[in-house]
Amino acid sequence: MKKIFLLSIILFAALVIQSCSDDSVTNQDPPVNDNLTLIGTQYSNGMKINLYSDTVLFTGYNDLYVEVKDSVSGIYVNDAHVELMPMMNMGSMSHSCPFDNPSSSTPVNGKFPCDAVFIMPSSAGNWTLETNIHNHITNEKASVIFPLTVTEPVYSKLKSKTVNGSTYFVSMIEPSKPKVGINDLMLKVNKRVTMMDFPNDSAYTFSVYPWMPSMGHSSPNNVNPVYTTQGMYDGDVNFTMTGDWRITLKFIESPQDSLSFDLVF
Amino acid sequence: MNFRKIFLNAVYSVIFITSILHAQEADTSFRHYIIDKGINVSRINLSKEELGFYKSSDLNSTEEILNRLGISFIRRGNYAPEPVIRGLNTNQTDITINGMKIMPACTDKMDPVTSYVETENLGEIEIESGTGTGSLLSNSGGKIDLGLYTPKFSESFRYNGNIKSGYQLASENYKGSFNLNLTDRKFSINVNTTFNTSGDYKKSGGIAVWNSGFKKYNFSLNGSYKLKSKDLININGIIDDAYDVGYPALLMDVGSAKARIIGLDYQADNFMKFFNNMRFKIYYNKVDHIMDDSRRQNGFRMDMPGKTETFGSSLTGSVYFDSKTQLTSGFEFTNSLISADMTMYFSNNIPMYMVTWPDIRKNAINSKFSLLRSVTDNLTVSPFFGFGYQNSDIGNIVGFNSLQIFYSDLKKSSSRNLFSGGVKISQRITNSVLAELTASYSERFPTASEEFGFYLYNKFDNYDYIGNPELKNESSYQLNLGVDYSKHNLSFKTNVFGYFFSDYIMGVFDNSVSAMTPGSNGVKFYSNTGNALITGFEMNLMMNLSEKFSLVTIVNYIYGKEFNEDPLPLIPPLNSTFSIRYSNKNYFIQLEEILNAPQNRVSKRNSESASAGYAISNLRVTDRINKWFSISGGIENIFDKEYYNHLDWLKIPQKGRNIYCDLKISF
Ligand SMILES: [Cu+2]
Question: Which of B153, B232, B496, B625 is deepest in the core (most CB within 10 A)?
Fold first, then answer.
């Protein structure tokens, strides 16, 4: 009885939303998000929880999407609090990694976007992602654990550097598909405070210097990344030709420190 | 066929051409002299017979003939030097084949259009210095038109032809050709095939200049059909393939350079009883240029293929309004595609790919109107006006994205306009003196490299060049005063000129951008550098000393400077050619002295250095043995002097003593 009541509320809400937005979507399925990779599915307390990512998980920054549905009706849960806790068990020790919980209790296209920066590949231990959900509609709580497989990319997208005694993780998010011309440069910086705490960090600014090691030349008119939000930095990196490139980032406030990403396209 | 007559004609026609014309013109007016003969002091127009005089041997290349007509050349090897008219290179001038526009396909300027013909293809050569004289709008520095076979007809079916074979010692150059003409009352067909191969040439002392050889095959077919007395339909085709061409002054060589040229034209006199002459032309050509460095030890491999394709059409016609006024107009349309890219291989790394000419599709139209008005019997005034429009589309997205690195506002499609105009005044001062003053304004579009080139390495100053889509057209005010004096045994022609440029286009060093090519000094961007001046004079004296001795002297001088008084680069030094020819019934002997002054006015901006002067002596002999056989030979650079011209890149010495010989069998 209670369920039917709730269902009718949800249906009503969906109808209202539909009549307001005049969406062409007629059933309850939100538009299918293009080409996401399903990492795993877990059930708990009447919820079906799907975890998606853009590609297979790799060492570095990964966008993650948590999808919460009613396990019986398959209806999307449109109001929930989602919290993550990634963990790596290396036998003798465990540690977490940088991550961001969904910023809102309202999903985007039915999914709660979040992210994690895996700092090691699964070859060094076992990654899990604990996901805690508070379904605001049913007021139910769920806690599930996704086992993860994190691979190491051919060209590393994550670098760590100890600067003035603190260790920083710098992830290169963009360019993910490098091309000749102007490319977005997007970085994420996290500081390691403890093995369990890797907050976003904006203490340093960077200069960008692309270099072609085989030919020994750089490229012009790059834009140094500037801090935006949530540990993110945004700039431009230019490639004048295809081939092997090395993007070197200098810590402007600590000029003797730098790190570089290699990429080939 | 009376060969002797033709032969003598060839020798004397140039010497006497003006006096003959004067004789004919005694009972016609000066007006017709100007109109019908198209005589023009700042224009050289030579027919095949007249070319014969400048062509002292069948082994002569097109460039050697042009050189004797006052054209200088920028040399990057022993093949395809780039013509320079009055210090202006192919950025500022047009080179056309039979009026057809062809886009060179090499980003390193290895293939000026002159390289796609053999002298055997040529009918007549027209050189126009500056703007003002042609019926079609030409580039600001003028043009060279390499006319193809001029059709001849005969009362009944006839055939004739020749086989030529020649050898040059200094470059182990062998050149052989076969030429066949079929003529009738209505049609004329000419087929020509030439094979030209050269090893590394030897500089003074018999020392070979490594990697300076080439191989070239050329085939041409020309057909004409006569509709009425002066109404013709012509078809011209050329297949020209060069292989394994070495460029000692560059980083790269040519695996193959292929041109396919085809044109159809219709010419008519008194067309539709309105045009007193009309010419319509439609043509297509395609150039494939395969450039690489597989013969070099650069430490890496580079492939830099280039490709162009041009479709064009032109219409020229003139109308007499009355006996004193003639209007000539010319329209031209061209559609061309210009592409080039580069792939580099460094040891085991993934190949590096770059787009250097981003598939530029150019649609251009231009038109020109000139009015010729006889004010008095001795004075004609000819105002002219031209307009050009060009649209460029960048078709290659990688190339577009690359240029965007420098020009964030870059548009895929852009267009430009240009105007030109001026007036030419011709005054006959006495029966034998003609003076001509031309004052004009002209503009030119930037070239594909200047506008859209991407990291094009220039070995001359050792910089990488990047194009600039934001360039303004280069413009110039031009003043030319020419005087032509002709008396029976003497013809003297002189021109004094001044070109005043604004927005002169040159590469400007930018130290914020690092070089791409290994070893390059840095990057230059094509820019409008401001004002520049080119001024100078040329003299051409032809004299008949006696019935058997004739003398030809050419003197050229050019002075060029930038707005800031710095000299312009690659300006030929004062140079002259003296030749004296002794002609007898069946043979002639010619002695030539080529003189070049040192050039100390050099461009710092372009890392140019001064050049020494030189004097070279040549001896040439031609003997007509009989009706069928003729033999010619000679010694060039008799004293085996080691020399280079100021326009020779890297100052690589030219040929040392060269002995040549060729045999011609006619039938
Ligand atoms: Cu080339």
Answer: B232
